[in-house]
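Hi there, hope your week has been kind to you so far. No rush at all, and the record is pasted right below.
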Amino acid sequence: MDVTREALTRLVGPVGELADAARLEGGMFAETWSVTLADGRRVVVKIAPSDSDRLLSHEHDLLRTEAMVYELAQHHAGLLMPRPLHVDVSREVVPGDVLVATFLAGTPWESVGFGAHDEDARTARAEADLAALLGRLGAVTGETFGYPQSPALRGPTWRGAFTAMVEALLADAVRWDVAVPADRFRAALTQHGTTLDEVRVPRLVHTDLWPGNLFVDAATGALVGVIDPERALWGDPLLELVGADPMHTGLWRRLAPAGVDEPSARVRLALYRAWLALVMIVEVAPRTYTGDWLTDYDAANRTRLDEALTELGT
């Protein structure tokens, strides 16, 4: 999407007068701009993709979820998220939804260059702060399970909502001609669905707390900001461990709360690892990713999917 300065000026108009703007790189879903206003304030303008034909089933209207979560964060201490300033879902200025939010200070954790957690106190601090954040997020409760912006992917039970989420991904795989072990995943849900019924309260799950979405103080490692809750849902807080450690490197273990080794928790974690691996496999096709890295990336995701389903006995 080519966003003109005139369009950006109109989009930030309800907040202030545009003085300068620069596109932010690194996002693989929405288009994001850093805007300096005439009064010196910095804001971020995030614009959802306009080509809805290339979205996965759960990705429609995601920016509305992000705005909702940012607003929730203003009423729950310690969630460290930007303040939403303006939301435009009219699609009159640009063909996608738009969110204008405050600019967060700090450095993305992924680019700050910290050492290993057992060698660098800053990493240990960041991980401890992230573990505490997971607890605060899980304390925010909702009324129904699933994706807030998608009625088809919501439900009164976590088992029903999660099953709908998986089935939507399997349908996306068919749509994009991506080979996945659908029968094995369905068998795992049938075999272990009762463990999902143990989740009785819908709790806020960011789902994507990898270091690229976390800002830290480069000197101390303190966690100072959290962004991109566009894929947030109401569900099981254990799913957060998978999103925070998508490559399953072991970080999840250091973040895990007490009780994570109970049999039902281990089963649910395996289901969530399989789900995230499935997302990462299927999304490659509509995103039209290219590059030498792609073969190894796909192979790693398929290995994690197979390992999780094998752990589940299917």
Notes: The two ends are 43 Å apart (CA to CA). The domain at 5-102 is CATH 3.30.200.20 (Phosphorylase Kinase; domain 1). The mean pLDDT is 95. The first strand starts at residue 18 and ends at 24.
